[in-house]
Design goal:
Helix content: 40-55%
Radius of gyration: 34 Å
Number of domains: 2
Order of helices and strands: HHEEEHEEHEHEHEEEHEEEHEHHHHH
Shape: elongated
Strand content: 15-25%
Number of helices: 13
Length: 427
């Protein structure tokens, strides 16, 4: 009981020493405040940026393998000089081979796309005409806002219908319901609108073969309709030049049941296509690989950001050491009197460590509060997503407390080593 009372008295004395110079104590802990807050904020910004990238990759499907047509390096071997037609990329034969050969595939979704201008009345918009199978919507995790998606019957009947993106519905129809209306695509094609896709955040380019995509500007039609009405050959007339390109399929997405089969499926797919595409006019992208790379990059990025911000914690620790050394010099007489009255070195060390810990705890607490509020301000001002994680708060607080106490040990030992007689004489 006596020991507890003594320690309580020492604790009160230490707090009294801290509160005696309020402004100086506040200025002392500012280094820790800014250090803790900067660690939390920088890690929150890094976590938010990484999360956005990972969500875009996950939207591609971590159980998917994506193979896209790629225009080979221009040479004379792929051009028919009679028709001036260049042929490259994936074919319907490839789709049949993949469906029949890749046993791990549970869903194979073909896609063909090319840019087109869409028009309704006087309103027009540059869009993308996309021919698909009905499984396309599930594979890409799309939701319907109005109407319906394409159905197997539309594919079988080569139905003259389409599903449009949210931006087309907003910019072209301007408040009118687009359902049931005919949308002009290009100069001569009309499609009846049966559904509108829900808004989906545009994605940045991912991998060597995936360009940035904005699905909100898509006009999605059955692939059979696309082939019967548009054909496999695309003609382009630009600035007096004329070109014909035969492109049967732009992309094939293979979905497997288990993510552990993704890489082996990609290897089997590459081996299958390489036999029929000696010019390597295709590229395979594995979203799972991209996700793993993004996660690895995030860990490195967080480490760099955290280490950079942690420098301010060291500065804060040095500030505490500096003020505690000054405190030892100011209280030399007090230390000498306490030693002369029988106080041990351990008692002096404990008193100064309590003062140091109080400063560290105070600075850490304020730093955590600032760190929790600052990311919201960053999001509000810049629009950048920030995510504050529990582990970043714990790491910042733990490092701050450790730095503060460690840097206070030296001044405490210096105070404890003072000779009582010398201390009274110097005072």
């Amino acid at each position: 009981m006596k020991i507890g009372a003594t320690q309580l008295a020492m604790f009160r004395m230490a707090l009294r020493g801290v509160l005696m110079h309020k402004l100086r104590s506040l200025l002392t802990v500012l280094g820790l405040v800014f250090g803790v807050a900067s660690v939390i904020v920088m890690l929150a910004v890094g976590e938010g940026a990484s999360r956005q990238a990972q969500l875009q990759i996950e939207a591609l499907g971590v159980n998917n393998v994506i193979v896209r047509s790629k225009k080979p390096t221009s040479d004379s071997s792929d051009v028919n000089f009679r028709s001036f037609e260049q042929s490259y990329g994936l074919t319907y034969d490839d789709l049949r081979r993949v469906t029949e050969t890749i046993s791990s595939a549970i869903k194979v979704t073909p896609l063909r796309e090319f840019p087109q201008e869409v028009r309704y009345g006087a309103a027009s918009l540059d869009a993308r005409l996309v021919g698909v199978h009905p499984s396309y919507f599930d594979t890409n995790r799309l939701e319907v806002a109005r109407g319906r998606f394409l159905e197997p019957a539309d594919l079988d009947n080569r139905a003259n219908v389409c599903v449009i993106g949210e931006q087309i519905a907003t910019d072209v129809f301007r408040g009118q319901s687009p359902l049931g209306k005919s949308l002009q695509v290009g100069n001569q094609h009309f499609f009846r609108i049966v559904g509108v896709q829900a808004y989906k955040t545009p994605s940045a380019g991912a991998g060597s073969s995936l360009a940035a995509q904005d699905l909100n500007r898509d006009v999605v039609i059955p692939l059979t309709t696309d082939r019967s009405r548009i054909g496999d050959v695309i003609e382009k007339i630009e600035q007096g030049s004329f070109s014909r390109q035969r492109l049967e399929l732009s992309q094939i997405t293979i979905q497997v049941k288990d993510r552990f089969q993704v890489k082996s499926t990609a290897a089997a797919l590459n081996g299958l296509l390489a036999k029929f595409h000696p010019r390597e006019d295709y590229a395979i992208t594995i979203p799972l690989d991209l996700l793993e790379q993004a996660q690895a990059t995030q860990r490195i990025f967080n480490f760099v950001l955290g280490a950079t911000a942690a420098i301010s914690l060291l500065v804060g620790g040095i500030g505490i050491m500096n003020i505690m050394l000054a405190t030892v010099s100011e209280r030399t007489r007090e230390i000498g009197i306490r030693r002369a009255l029988g106080a041990k070195q351990g008692d002096i060390i404990l008193q100064f460590l309590i003062e140091t810990a109080s400063l560290s705890l105070f600075g850490t607490g304020i730093g955590v509060l600032v760190g929790l509020g600052a990311p919201r301000l960053v999001t509000y001002l810049s629009g950048t997503e920030t995510i504050v994680t529990a582990w970043s708060i714990m790491v910042a607080a733990l490092v701050s407390l450790t730095v503060g106490i460690v840097f206070g040990i030296y001044p405490a030992r210096q105070a404890a080593r003072l000779d009582p007689i010398e201390a009274l004489r110097r005072a």
